[in-house]
Amino acid sequence: MSSAYSPYGGPPTQRCQRCGMPLPPNVVTCMNCGAYNSLAQPGGSTGQGQPLWGGTPQQSSYEGGQSGPQWGLAPNSPSQNNQWAPPATFPQNNTYGTPYTPLPTSSANNFYGMPGQGQQSNFSNYYAPPQQNAFYSAQSVTYPGYSPDSLNGYAPPGFDRPPQKKRGPKVGLIVGIVVLVLILISGAFAGYSYLNNHNQNGTASNATPTRLSTPSIKPLFSDSFNNNSTGWDLSSSPGKFLVKVGGGSMVLEDDDNKLLWEILPGKRFSDFQLDVNVALSKGDPNNGYGVYIRGGSSQESEMGTYYRFELYGDGTYAIYKGSLDTAGHTQSTKVRDYTANNAIAKAVQVNHITIIAKGPTMTLMVNGQTLYTYTDNTYKDGSVALFVSNVPNLKPGAQATFTNLAVFPAS
């Protein structure tokens, strides 16, 4: 078994000058406290110039006749973390012509409290930096806290280097691209639908729709408005109202914020089906136009009593009932308040109106779709009239254009 003490009869064991721990032969760094110790000189004295590896250095005389090593100072010992034993002697071909100068140590920014450049290590240094050897390359040591990516390869204690993120598929980018593609597809579809509907509406505004659900039997009354052969009242007042028939249409215009009607000449109907095409051709889109049915006169007007189906240029409709009060004055009551319906084409566009009156039931339709069914047995027959309404408080001037009017027996 090896021992830190010298064998019996051998040279006396040297102890650490700091902690008193026995030192192995030719070892100057205490393995217990790390202090540097001078080697004992022959005869019991210690000298700072004693070599570390047991060779016999050349002796020279210095001041005072004292002998010491040729190179002056003992080299710094390796740190206690390096557990290697140096060779017993230097190679013989080394020539020590000049004193050996220890390499400069690091500056004051030293994590271990090492001496700075130009300072000599002493007993207060717990970690003396290892001296570089020209003939030996020590195995690299990884110190606690070593980090290859940190400054000078060292990270202070307690510093945790964040783990490197593995490069994988960029899910966020992929999801973003998919969402963007879906948005583009949705936008393109919405744009196509809008343009398609817009084109359809634009076509409807310029085309006269064919009659829908018109009977094949002989009509009770019909007029294509090529001329005034049926005897419409063409009375007009410049700046107030205008009635014009010819060229395939009837034009009714009111410029005085009133309602202008034109009664079918000499005709009254009980049960019937009426079909006509009409558009609000001029004026504010909130103006109205439509058809009176089962109208009756009063002491004040030719249309004192009635049912009135009115469309508006904004795509809404309303239904009115006219009746007389005790004094004989006409009162208008809303049976159906303003209601929007997608079947109604807006201003400038043509709508096909169909009214079926049979007994007390009246079915009101636009472009083939039933908007409202009204039941009332107050008026069983009466006159039919076409009208335009320049609504009060709007800009003066409202014009409606009618084409292809026909009245059939109710089936």
Task: Kindly describe this structure.
The chain is mainly β and 411 residues long. The chain folds into 2 domains: 157 residues, no CATH class; 191 residues, Jelly Rolls. Helix content is 9%, strand content 29%. The protein is built from 1 helix and 20 strands. Strands 7, 8, 9, 11, 16, 17, 18 and 20 form an 8-stranded antiparallel β-sheet that branches. Strands 10-19-12-13-14-15 form a 6-stranded antiparallel β-sheet, with no helix packed on it. It is rod-shaped. It starts with 13 loop residues before the first strand and ends with a strand. The relative contact order is 0.11.
Quick recap of the structure?
The protein is mainly beta.
CATH 4th-level superfamily of the largest domain: Exo-inulinase, domain 1
**What top-tier CATH class of the largest domain fits best?**
Mainly Beta
User: Which consecutive residue ranges, at least 5 long each, have pLDDT under 50?
Assistant: 1-5, 47-141, 149-166, 197-211
Helix content: under 10%
User: Could you give a short account of the major beta sheet?
Assistant: 8 strands, antiparallel
**Topology, number of strands:** 20
Succession of helices and strands: EEEEEEHEEEEEEEEEEEEEE
Rg from alpha-carbon coordinates: 59 Å
Q: What's the number of structural domains?
A: 2
Question: What's the topology here?
Answer:
Elements: E1 14-15, E2 22-23, E3 39-40, E4 46-47, E5 60-61, E6 67-68, H1 171-206, E7 221-223, E8 241-246, E9 249-254, E10 259-263, E11 272-283, E12 288-296, E13 305-312, E14 316-324, E15 330-340, E16 351-358, E17 361-366, E18 369-375, E19 383-389, E20 398-409
Antiparallel strand pairs: 1-2, 3-4, 5-6, 7-20, 8-9, 9-20, 10-19, 11-16, 11-20, 12-13, 12-19, 13-14, 14-15, 16-17, 17-18
